[in-house]
C-alpha cells in the first residue's frame, strides 16, 4: 500500500483537512479520522488542538544519525541472538520474505515494496529474540518509515537484497559472530546510502562495531 507522506507527495508541515479528504474520497469523516490517528501513531502526523493534523518534519542529518545509532545498538545483538537459538531460528521465514521481495524488486512500486520488506525482515529478527521490551522500543521508533521519507538511494533494492542475504545466511547457519558482523555492515551501509541525500560529509556513528557507545564520541 502506497503512503503518500512517505513518498513525499504530501510535504512536511502540510495541514490535513479532514473534510476535504473525506469529500475527495467520498467517505464520511469517521474513517478519515481513524486513518489520521493511525498515521499519528506512526509519527507521520502531529495533532495540535485547534490546529488539526500536520505532517511531521523529515529527518535532518543529526536525526538520521540518531536513528542509525539506535539501530546499531539493538540490531547486531538481535542478529546474534537469533542465530544462537536453533529452536527459534527465523531462517526459514527470513528466506521466504527475501524471496518474495526479490520477485518484485525493480518493479513499478519497488520503493513501497522495499519499505514493507525492510520493515518485516528486521522485525522478524527482533521477534526471534523473544525480548518484548526490545521489540516494543524498536517498533515505536518507526525507523524504517522515517528513513524512507528521505530520497531512496537503493532505488531497485539490489544492495538491500545482497546485505539481507548475508544476514540470513549467517542466522540460518547458526553463526552468531557472522550474523552480528553482517548486521553491522548492513546498518552502516544503509546509513551511508541514506545520508547521501544531504550532499554533505556525514558524521560517523557514535557506536563501535560491537555495539558499545563511546562517551568521547558523544561528548566530543
Automatic annotation (TrEMBL):
Organism: Intrasporangium chromatireducens Q5-1
Pfam families reported for this sequence: FCD, GntR
Gene3D superfamilies on file: GntR ligand-binding domain-like (1.20.120.530), Winged helix-like DNA-binding domain superfamily/Winged helix DNA-binding domain (1.10.10.10)
Keywords assigned: DNA-binding, Transcription, Transcription regulation
Protein name as catalogued: GntR family transcriptional regulator
TM region(s), chain numbering: none
SMART domains per the UniProt record, alphabetical: FCD, HTH_GNTR
Residue ranges constituting the HTH gntR-type domain according to the UniProt record: 1-58
GO MF annotation, one: DNA binding
Lineage per the UniProt record: Bacteria, Bacillati, Actinomycetota, Actinomycetes, Micrococcales
SUPFAM superfamilies assigned to the protein according to its UniProt record, in alphabetical order: GntR ligand-binding domain-like, Winged helix' DNA-binding domain
InterPro entries according to UniProt: GntR_C, TF_FadR/GntR_C, Tscrpt_reg_HTH_GntR, WH-like_DNA-bd_sf, WH_DNA-bd_sf
Coiled-coil annotated residue ranges, if any: none
Amino acid at each position: 500500500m502506497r503512503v503518500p507522506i512517505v513518498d513525499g507527495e504530501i510535504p512536511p508541515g502540510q495541514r490535513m483537512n479532514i473534510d476535504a479528504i473525506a469529500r475527495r474520497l467520498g467517505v464520511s469523516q469517521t474513517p478519515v479520522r481513524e486513518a489520521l490517528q493511525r498515521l499519528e501513531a506512526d509519527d507521520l502526523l502531529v495533532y495540535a488542538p485547534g490546529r488539526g493534523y500536520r505532517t511531521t518534519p523529515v529527518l535532518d542529518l543529526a536525526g538520521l544519525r540518531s536513528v542509525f545509532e539506535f539501530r546499531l545498538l539493538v540490531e547486531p545483538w538481535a542478529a546474534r541472538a537469533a542465530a544462537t537459538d536453533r529452536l527459534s531460528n527465523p531462517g526459514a521465514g527470513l528466506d521466504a520474505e527475501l524471496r518474495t521481495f526479490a520477485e518484485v524488486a525493480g518493479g513499478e512500486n519497488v520503493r513501497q515494496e522495499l519499505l514493507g520488506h525492510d520493515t518485516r525482515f528486521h522485525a522478524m529478527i527482533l521477534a526471534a529474540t523473544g525480548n518484548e521490551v526490545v521489540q516494543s522500543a524498536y517498533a515505536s521508533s518507526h525507523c524504517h518509515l522515517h528513513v524512507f521519507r528521505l530520497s531512496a538511494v537503493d532505488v531497485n533494492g539490489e544492495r538491500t537484497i545482497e546485505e539481507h542475504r548475508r544476514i540470513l545466511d549467517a542466522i540460518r547457519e547458526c553463526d552468531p559472530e557472522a550474523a552480528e558482523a553482517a548486521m553491522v555492515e548492513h546498518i552502516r551501509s544503509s546509513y551511508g546510502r541514506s545520508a547521501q541525500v544531504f550532499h554533505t560529509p556525514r558524521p560517523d556513528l557514535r557506536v563501535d562495531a560491537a555495539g558499545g557507545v563511546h562517551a568521547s564520541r558523544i561528548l566530543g
